[in-house]
């Protein structure tokens, strides 16, 4: 028993010695865990964490909802593209995008040129359970937000499916477990996550 535990720790220690070679952009629907899993993943790999929404909020000194309300979605999308370009120029890290970012062909092209996209795929039920109590997502401020979410999932999935990598989110996975799922996916690509 003890020997097994010791062995497990050794494997864990080895896991820390992985080196991220390309920025990984997390893409997918609101509530899929891009921000939460991305934060923990960056810490796990010892690399910077970037979030395009947070960068927009910081630059504008307004919340996402306020930006949508005052300046409209088109304005937000323009800022989002600028921020993505800027964040992809920096050090290699984990970049969590906003749920709409990967719908733009120009943004997809940029991400593919500078890094690699990983889709955090989750079904509508899971997404809904994660976002239903939050008022921070202006696109869901409709008469029937659940139907809106379903509609967005249906329309967006073909774009998310263009990501080179996919990790499946399951309701029973904690954030830490989801990080390990993502690490396993990244390890399949030596040019993205190398064991050193
Ligand atoms: N694997 C998970 N287990 C438990 N809660 C999660 C998990 N992933 C995300 N969450 C929670 O779900 C909510 C939405 O996640 P978030 O990271 O903001 O998603 P996104 O950035 O993709 O919109 C947050 O409250 C977050 O803490
Ligand atoms: O799906 C979308 O179009 C959006 C998702 C949000 O980010 P998260 O996916 O991190 O919630 C945020 O960028 C904005 O509310 C628009
Ligand atoms: Mg987010």
TrEMBL record:
Protein name, entry field: Shikimate kinase
The protein's Enzyme Commission number: 2.7.1.71
An annotated GO BP: amino acid biosynthetic process
Residues involved in Mg(2+) binding: 35
Pfam family, any one: SKI
Chief location bin: cytoplasm
Metabolic or biological pathway, per its Swiss-Prot or TrEMBL entry: Metabolic intermediate biosynthesis; chorismate biosynthesis; chorismate from D-erythrose 4-phosphate and phosphoenolpyruvate: step 5/7
One GO cellular component, as annotated: cytosol
Superkingdom of this protein's organism: Bacteria
Manner of cofactor binding, per the entry note: Binds 1 Mg(2+) ion per subunit.
UniProt GO MF annotations: ATP binding; magnesium ion binding; shikimate kinase activity
UniProt xrefs under NCBIfam families: PRK13946.1
HAMAP family for this protein: Shikimate_kinase
Entry keyword Lyase: no
Amino acids binding substrate: 53, 77, 99, 156
Annotated family: Belongs to the shikimate kinase family.
Binding site for ATP: 31-36, 137
Keyword Magnesium in annotation: yes
Organism whose genome encodes this protein: Vannielia litorea
Cofactor(s) the protein requires to work: Mg(2+)
Family annotation (InterPro entries): P-loop_NTPase, Shikimate/glucono_kinase, Shikimate_kinase/TSH1
Subcellular location: Cytoplasm
Main function: Catalyzes the specific phosphorylation of the 3-hydroxyl group of shikimic acid using ATP as a cosubstrate.
PANTHER family tied to this protein: SHIKIMATE KINASE, SHIKIMATE KINASE 1, CHLOROPLASTIC
Keyword annotations from UniProtKB, A to Z: Amino-acid biosynthesis, Aromatic amino acid biosynthesis, ATP-binding, Cytoplasm, Kinase, Magnesium, Metal-binding, Nucleotide-binding, Transferase
Recorded catalytic activity of this chain's protein: shikimate + ATP = 3-phosphoshikimate + ADP + H(+)
Organism lineage string: Bacteria, Pseudomonadati, Pseudomonadota, Alphaproteobacteria, Rhodobacterales
